[in-house]
């Protein structure tokens, strides 16, 4: 297993190396997620990630490239539940898409396991332009454009973004800034008021 | 003028001291705003603010108290344009309040002079719980509750917060994360789509 701690060289990898590589890669990715979550993008270093994963920095570079690329890989994993949103959207009729999307995203924020990494991403994206760019690429390409793809309307992308804005704002005020009464309001009460707005942005004429 | 750099003592202040005090206080406040904007809440220190203002740390404590209190005073100034929103809301009929509020808040974000300090506050509030608490107090007490006070409805505060959520989300995606096409869309196009939503949250049955 320790062979995997050596960067892969040209030529056919040894059997041990091929088998161990995913485990090492996952360990680095896990460490990266923890480091970015705790320290934010700016204070996290490739060296720190390597140390937390118990490997050499060179191996982090080998598997992922630059710090920006490690971040992208880490948030892609942390953000995976949210990136499933388009599937949730596609999974039903268009006239109830607002409610499905609202329930889906509030569900991710309500669950502490998925909320923590999401919060870390949002914090990094708000504070650092490189992190914002990574977040933007990921959200735009994998989430908003796929939701927009479901709408047969000329301004589908702007619609998807304004719907997302309502949900992002609710998440900010409820889970990050924690403004009352919104922070303690029953989820169903929020769905009741927010779902029609999301629906309207997406499909109203 | 340099007398003002000495903390005020008990007893009647000298005439020079009384006259100079507002200037010194303003200088500290200005330095605090700059420091918090550049470094964020966590990395800013009372000592750093004092140094930037050219005064002793004791004087900063004398005028404002703790770092949290300096922050509160600084964001109150930086946030002053946004805190005028309730006036903008009150200044016209209730059935066009959504458009007035939307135009007013987008106007603040469109103007780089008011956007920069606002962005610094948002960054600090997202990253630090103490800063978030200060932001929450200020926004809740001075902005949302005053807007809610205009609505004669039982759930006025939740309504004001959901309307704010739509506007906060647009600001996040357009000015902070800069997702396209929203980031480059014409303001009028955004007002056209967002104002009815804000209006709906505030006054729809």
UniProtKB/TrEMBL annotation, chains A, B:
Residues 1-24 are annotated as: Disordered. Residues 45-64 bind DNA. SUPFAM superfamilies: Homeodomain-like, Tetracyclin repressor-like, C-terminal domain. Residues 14-24 have a biased composition (Basic and acidic residues). It comes from the Bacteria. GO terms for molecular function: DNA-binding transcription factor activity; transcription cis-regulatory region binding. Keywords: DNA-binding. Residues 22-82 form the HTH tetR-type domain. InterPro entries: Homeodomain-like_sf (IPR009057), HTH-type_TetR-like_transc_reg (IPR050109), HTH_TetR (IPR001647), Tet_transcr_reg_TetR-rel_C_sf (IPR036271), TetR_C_16 (IPR041678). This is TetR family transcriptional regulator. It comes from Streptomyces olivochromogenes.
């Amino acid at each position: 297993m320790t062979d995997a701690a050596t960067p892969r060289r040209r030529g056919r990898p040894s059997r041990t190396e091929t088998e161990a590589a995913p485990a090492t890669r996952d360990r680095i990715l896990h460490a990266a997620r923890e480091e970015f979550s705790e320290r934010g993008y700016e204070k996290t270093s490739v060296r720190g990630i390597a140390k937390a994963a118990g490997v050499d920095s060179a191996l982090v570079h080998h598997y992922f490239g630059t710090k920006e690329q490690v971040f992208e890989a880490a948030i892609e994993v942390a953000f995976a539940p949210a990136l499933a949103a388009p599937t949730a959207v596609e999974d039903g009729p268009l006239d109830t898409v607002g409610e499905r999307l609202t329930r889906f995203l509030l569900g991710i924020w309500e669950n502490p396991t998925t909320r923590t990494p999401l919060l870390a991403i949002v914090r990094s994206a708000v504070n650092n332009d490189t992190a914002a760019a990574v977040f933007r690429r990921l959200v735009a390409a994998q989430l908003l454009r796929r939701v927009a793809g479901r709408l047969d309307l000329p301004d589908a992308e702007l619609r998807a973004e304004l719907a997302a804005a309502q949900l992002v704002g609710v998440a900010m005020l409820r889970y990050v800034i924690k403004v009352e009464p919104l922070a303690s309001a029953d989820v169903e009460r929020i769905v009741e008021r927010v779902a029609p707005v999301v629906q309207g942005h997406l499909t109203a004429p």
